[in-house]
Amino acid sequence: MKLLLLKILLQRRARDEGFTLPMVIAIGLVMILLGTINIVKSSEENITAISQNSSADAMAVAEVGIIKYRELLNQNRILTVYNEDQWTSTNVAGQTCANMATAPTGWTGTATLANDTAATATDTATTDNDNWWEINEDFNGDGDTTDDGEFVGEYRLVSYEYDIDGLTGTADSTADNNDFDLFSDADKDDDPGTLASGVTVNSITDENDTDDDGQSDAVGILTVQGRSPDGGIAQIETKIPLRINDLENFAPVLWVESGAIATPGTLNIPNADDNIVLKSSGTGCSTPAAIAGNTNVISDPRNLPAIISLPTDSTKKNSIGTIDTTSSKITLPTPSVTPDNKNDQGRFLYEVSTINVATNNLETDGIAKVTLYATGNINITGASGTTITIGNSNAANPNTKAACVDPASTATPPALLSFANFNCANTISTSVSSQNLEIYGSSTTTQIDINTNGGTVNIESFIHAPDATLNISGGGTVNINGAVWVNSFNNTSTTVNVRSDKTDTTTAAEASYKFYTTSATMTPRPLTSTPTDWVREEVQ
């Protein structure tokens, strides 16, 4: 049967002459064409795979770039509240740990500064080799990352824009730069009240929480390009939320602008949550050595915040000459006289030329909040065997009050509870705290002198004098509940105890250093949260 079929197929007919060979050739051509198509298709798939791999590699490199720039922002947090074109300005660069005039430590490539961008690249579009930072890995472990195959890719900054209101680009330009406050000086949404005093005391800044969800709306919009070794380029834009709660760790109960305390004497910062803060910049801001046995010492590159502005409206301040307690005790605010007015933050503000506290106390009444704005020097003089008190209306020794004593203490006299208030057991004025008395020293306040003369000086106040040197002498003891922010600190022979207290000892509110400033010009030191809203963008 098989032979029969073969015979029939091979049987030649006259009319088929000359047709068989072309048929075979045609079939062969079809087979060649199909093979070529398969080869081309396979090549295209291979090219697509290579392109996709290149794009994926570039995307991975861009993600590394995002991580590197976020690390830079966390180490130099003043950068978070400025657009990238301001990072090398004198004001901003003077408040960073890194030297913004050189490449960040460990960064190498064709870029020279952290804020070099794709837009500032000077090469042509065909070369495009400007302002990139390289990523090299020591795969063979020989300590040399210049070997063949150890170049992973490179990344560069496209832009960083600080935004607090959702308006970006040319619509907003640099309007948001450095606008990041601890307090609201105007009610910009539907928070209670029309003044800062009406905002919930533990709420974050009104300006930075426009939707009232209790979270800051301030973000840094970071855009970075990544390039793979074979030339693939990817671009990522992400939003980095900025949080103000770094004050949980910052805790500046003693903030010294000069950056060093040469003569600390016997200086105690007993609360583990409180810190001595020293100004430092451009040197890496490494952790300073312990000071007088206190290990809670940190460096911070920010300038000491400016003090509040003195109101020009006479109805919002009380201008008096000198405060002097030598003859008799003074309790603030003074009895109702004209003018005895409050400023916009609901505080009684007194402009005084000098402050002299000696023999008698300078007290607050336990209800009102008082601000002293000094234009001259401040002198506090004690006496042996006596106690001079500034700021609270009960001068009794806190160690005699059971509610102030740490029950675990075995010392004599017993140690105070953390955040203990000088009059914490007083049933009449338990809300007295350092928030009740703020003392600001202007640029002409250059000296704050405390001489105990062997006695005790109790201060429950926030003292903020950026140009002043605080000199403490006389032996004895100085107890400060609150905080001291000055240019320099010298203590020759006195035991000095500085601790933070609560803004309201009745309700155990937040530590008062979080709420000391009433200035809208203070720039907190934000932390960055995990980047959100990752968007892959087309490279222009």
Instruction: Say how many strands there are.
Output: 24
Basic shape:
elongated
State the separation between the terminal residues, measured CA to CA: 73 Å
Order of helices and strands: HHHEEEEHEEEEEEEEEEEEEEEEEEEE
Structural class: alpha/beta
Count of DSSP H/I helices: 4
Low-pLDDT parts are: 47-51, 182-208, 395-401, 418-431, 517-523
Can you summarize the main beta sheet? 16 strands, parallel
Radius of gyration: 35 Å
> How much helical structure, as a percent, in the residues?
10-25%
Mean pLDDT: 75
**Hey, roughly how much beta strand do the residues contain?**
25-35%
Number of domains: 2
Task: Describe this protein's structure.
With 540 residues, this protein is α/β, with parallel strands linked by helices. It folds into two domains: 53-122 and 148-180 and 218-243 and 525-537, no CATH class; 248-514, no CATH class. It is 14% helix and 27% strand. The strands form three sheets. The protein has a 16-stranded parallel sheet that branches. Strands 1, 2, 3, 4, 23 and 24 form a six-stranded antiparallel sheet that branches. A two-stranded parallel ribbon has the order 11-14. Strand 3 (219-227) and strand 4 form a beta hairpin. The longest helix is centred in the first third of the chain and has 56 residues, at 20-75.
